[in-house]
Amino acid sequence: MIHLKIKSNMNSKRTLLAAGQMMFLAVLFCLVSANPLQALNVGEVGVRMVSAPILLSDADNPPANGTSEVAQIGFEVRNTSGTILNDLYADLSNINGSVSGFTLAAGQEASQFIGTLKAGESKIVYWEFSFPYQQTEEKASFDVTVGDKNPGVVVVSENIIARNPDYMQKPSTYSDLLFRAPEQMLLAGQGADVWFTGSGQDVIGYQFTLNVNPEKAKIENILYGVAESNNIMDKFAQSGRVTVSWHQLSARVLEEGEQQFGIRLIATKDILLSDLIQISSDYTAAEGYSPTGDLMDVKLLIGDDIEIEAELIFAQGTSPDQN
């Protein structure tokens, strides 16, 4: 109980106002103490991996066999609760590998603070992740846990693969994954939008490097479709390279004519699109993943009969996800 003593009539109004404020604060304190924030429940956040599930060793500068390399693993955390969520954090834990060496990199904290997410808002969190440099393909799994510092959490399990391009043989393929773009003449100094569409195929994901000859055209902008901003890295766009990595847990048809993503180009000279772009494994291994998990060759069809095939043998280079 709160006791207030009024000393004079002159100060009675001021004192009563203060009394009211104190009573309000006392009631508010009791309500907060009796009704703490509810724990995070399944369905209130969406968690998905946005980095490539394949960690590619640097074949140009291989360490001693059995030692570790480092890659960056990223997850998008989205507020799907319909209301604001406060004090969110994400943990990466329960790492289990087919061999030793899969672990968080030195100095990398397992817990990442996200903070506040408004309804529908998302943030991407990253961990530096060590993986072994081996002569064989190795696999690992881990959990990403999102919580709000209350007892409830949301856990998502993921799998990753570590590959060594020096020792890999060409994997068996399920079929070709086809991306299409219409042939067009790009005119010097004029902008042109180039959209890459699907071919009616079921996939659970794909990744590759899109190369544009930087002496003949500049990448002015990235255009988003099914592949969103967190699926496309434009860090090397000035040198004519864009990496694309899209995947999801369940299979999805990349419909014919459906815009997967695009680029806006400004040519430095009049040139056909087919003489300008290609898909490769320069930074990200070029491959698709069938609904059964089989590998798919990646091909780019420009116009009716011009075909540029992505080599499935991994290029000698470092993935930007590892920088």
Structure characterization notes:
The chain has 323 residues and is mainly beta. The protein has two domains: 45-163, Sandwich (Immunoglobulin-like); 173-316, Immunoglobulin-like (Sandwich). It has one helix and 22 strands. The chain has one helix spanning 12-34, and strands at 45-49, 54-56, 68-79, 85-97, 103-104, 111-117, 122-132, 138-147, 153-163, 173-181, 185-186, 191-197, 201-212, 217-224, 232-233, 241-254, 259-267, 271-272, 277-280, 287-289, 295-302, 306-309. Strands 10, 13, 15, 16, 19, 20, 21 and 22 form an eight-stranded mixed β-sheet that branches. A five-stranded mixed β-sheet has the order 2-9-8-4-6, with no helix packed on it. It has a four-stranded antiparallel β-sheet with strand order 1-3-7-5, with no helix packed on it. The longest helix is centred in the N-terminal third of the chain and has 23 residues, at 12-34. It is globular. The chain starts with 11 loop residues before the first helix and ends in a 14-residue tail after the last strand.
